Amino acid sequence: MAYLTHRLAVRVAPALQELTGAGVTEVVPILRNIFVERLDSLGPVQEALGQFVAARQLLSGHPVEVQCCIRGERIDRSGHR
Length: 81
Description:
Blueprint: E1 2-4, H1 6-17, H2 22-26, E2 33-37, H3 43-60, E3 65-70, E4 73-75
Parallel strand pairs: 1-2, 2-3
Antiparallel strand pairs: 3-4
Helix pairs in contact: 1-3
């Protein structure tokens, strides 16, 4: 599980997006959940994480779920805490 603040997400997401092939499955192999602060306002971060998640699922069969959080509280897709 990873919790990314807004500032950290804009740095980490592009690095994850650049992973290819075996790198996608070798980096943090037990990662299953990524919680991102204010994900809704981070279009490029959403895109980068989406590409990482898709590649991870395709190459390893291990899904990664990305969720929005505000100050440590999880927010579901409907906006409920």
